[in-house]
Amino acid sequence: MNAFEMITLSQGLNLSSLFDRQQDFIKRQTRFVSRKSAKVIISSIEAVAGSMGLKVHTRNFKTRLEGLSANKAGQFAAVIEVYEVAPSLFLVDVRKAAGDTLDYHKFYRSFCKKLEHIIWKPTESNAKHGLLRTKSCDS
Fold first, then answer.
1. Residue 131 falls within a domain, yes or no?
2. What is the rounded distance in angstroms from the CA atom of residue 14 to the CA atom of residue 4?
3. Is 23 among the domain residues?
4. Mean pLDDT lowest for which of 3-7, 19-23, 104-108?
5. What is the count of structural domains for the chain?
6. pLDDT for 38-92, tens place per residue?
7. Run of H or E residues at 98
8. For the domain that residue 106 is a member of, what is the CATH number?
9. Are 67 and 54 in contact (CB under 8 A)?
10. How would you list the strands of the sheet with 29-34, edge to edge?
11. How far apart are alpha carbons 129 and 17 in whole angstroms?
12. CA triplet 113, 100, 71: central angle to 5 degrees?
């Protein structure tokens, strides 16, 4: 993750709309934060993806999930990367790699519901200060 990507985590400093004209449309990228270790995050992702009938390919801290789209009309793939942004604070970046965007967002909501035990929900005071504002699983 580079400095520009880190800056985009704060809504007030997010300049990506200057460079990405398609940002007005549905986002292809989603993120959540966890306080669990990277190994716990990866193993939880693998277990949930397996229970959803997806093929899982993990290498280092990057995981690719593959399977059929929800309407069974085509292939679906997502790439998940885990970044340590501070000691005991991890950013999990989930991106659509193939398939329909609406199917991807349905997948993401369902995926997050099954990963609630590892997703960190910031306290009210952190949210007021603008810390870690990302597209959450609730959005």
1. no
2. 9
3. no
4. 19-23
5. 1
6. 999 999 999 999 999 999 999 988 999 998 876 667 788 999 999 988 888 898 9
7. strand 89-98
8. 3.30.310.80
9. yes
10. 29-34, 89-98, 75-86, 62-68, 55-59
11. 22
12. 75
Domain residues for the domain of 73 are 28-121
A 10 A CB-CB count for 118 gives 21
Give, in order, the Cα–Cα distances in Å from 65 to each of 7, 16, 26, 60.
Answer: 27, 26, 21, 14
Please indicate, yes or no, if residue 42 is contained in any of the structural domains: yes
Angle made by CA atoms 66, 67, 69, in degrees to the nearest 5? 120
- Locus of tokens 């709309």: 17
Under 8 Å CB-to-CB from 79, ≥6 apart: which residues?
A: 62, 63, 64, 65, 94, 95, 97
Q: Which two tokens stand for residue 26?
A: 């549905």
Write down the residue that tokens 């609730």 correspond to: 138
